[in-house]
Design goal:
CATH topology of the largest domain: Rossmann fold
Largest sheet: 8 strands, mixed
CATH class of the largest domain: Alpha Beta
Structural class: alpha/beta
Organism: Haptolina brevifila
Mean pLDDT: 78
Protein name: 25S rRNA (uridine-N(3))-methyltransferase BMT5-like domain-containing protein
Number of strands: 10
Number of helices: 9
Strand content: 5-15%
GO molecular function, one term: rRNA (uridine-N3-)-methyltransferase activity
Pfam families: BMT5-like
Radius of gyration: 26 Å
Distance between the termini: 69 Å
CATH architecture of the largest domain: 3-Layer(aba) Sandwich
Strand order of the largest sheet: 2-8-10-7-6-3-4-5
């Protein structure tokens, strides 16, 4: 079983305190000839697969209007990242942070682990231990917090398999980890559909290239929406384990519908709404179908 190596980010929890969220022109006496307005330059569409714009640290878990999104964190180490998010937002009732380690092993991992966990809980978040990224369905906490809609964000910072330590090649082990992660998420429909949820993986670009992240995701049924530098400067209480890293945002595309299936579904919907029409499988009323056959017979 492939198991992720936990994120080693540290949260430097500071003392209690508040955290901030976050011309007129004079007209001359002499009338001058007005210049024609210059048309604004049309911006070229950017490539969805890459972007130079950095990912806002707190933007991971906040929507367009600032609301907290249902968020699942995978592979936390001492819960430093989760605590940093909680402190930045001030509250995190929709945050679920998980780790592969047991509670006792997590406490022994870092002197800050206990404080980080208490910070997440105090801000309304949920914490779960012994959660395998390749078997998320086995966690009662994850499935309960999933709700009916799923998570709007699933975040895994610096995923890495520990299987390479027992003789399995690093690339193969980490590709297997990604496959297991994607299968676990998609099979249990952990990502929300409306609006489409995002799986955000923060990796070194060299690792993403070596592991063929885009290809593995595409085969699993995910698509790469964007990649951008991870920017932790918005929250100084968290230090990522790698300074040069990119956050890759993946999403599940809507299923392709066959035209015949679409037509059949439309006919069924109309027939249900208007039973008096007595629609046939082609979308015609029986009377129209009879007339059409009658014309063909006469021809």
């Amino acid at each position: 079983l492939m198991s992720p190596r936990d994120n080693k980010g540290q949260a430097k929890i500071k003392s209690k305190g508040t955290h901030s969220r976050g011309s007129t022109h004079s007209r001359g006496a002499v009338k001058k000839k007005r210049k024609r307005p210059v048309a604004a330059a049309v911006k070229k569409p950017t490539d969805h697969a890459s972007s130079s714009r950095s990912v806002d640290f707190c933007g991971h878990i906040s929507g367009a209007d600032g609301e907290d999104l249902d968020t699942l964190l995978i592979g936390e180490g001492d819960f430093g990242y989760a605590a940093a998010l909680a402190l930045e937002r001030g509250s995190c009732a929709n945050l679920t942070a998980t780790t592969l380690s047991s509670e006792s092993a997590t406490h022994a991992l870092s002197s800050d682990a206990i404080d980080n966990i208490e910070t997440v809980k105090a801000c309304g978040g949920s914490v779960a231990f012994k959660v395998d990224a390749t078997a998320l369905h086995s966690s009662d906490v994850v499935m309960r917090r999933r709700g009916k809609k799923g998570f709007a964000r699933i975040i895994f910072n610096f995923p890495a398999s520990s299987s390479s330590a027992v003789g399995v090649p690093s690339v193969d082990a980490n590709q297997e980890l990604l496959r297991g992660l994607f299968k676990s998420i998609l099979s249990q429909q952990l990502l929300s559909k409306q609006p489409a949820g995002l799986l955000q993986l923060t990796l070194r670009p060299s690792d993403a290239s070596a592991w063929k992240l885009g290809e593995v995701a595409r085969i699993a049924g995910l698509r790469l929406k964007s990649s951008a530098p991870f920017d932790g400067s918005h929250c100084p209480c968290y230090t990522p384990s790698c300074e040069e890293a990119l956050t890759y945002s993946l999403f599940e595309p809507p299923p392709k519908i066959d035209p015949e299936q679409r037509k059949a579904a439309l006919v069924a919907a109309v027939a249900k709404a208007h039973p008096e029409l007595r629609l046939g499988p082609t979308g015609q009323t029986y009377k129209e179908a009879w007339k059409q056959r009658h014309k063909k017979g006469r021809g």
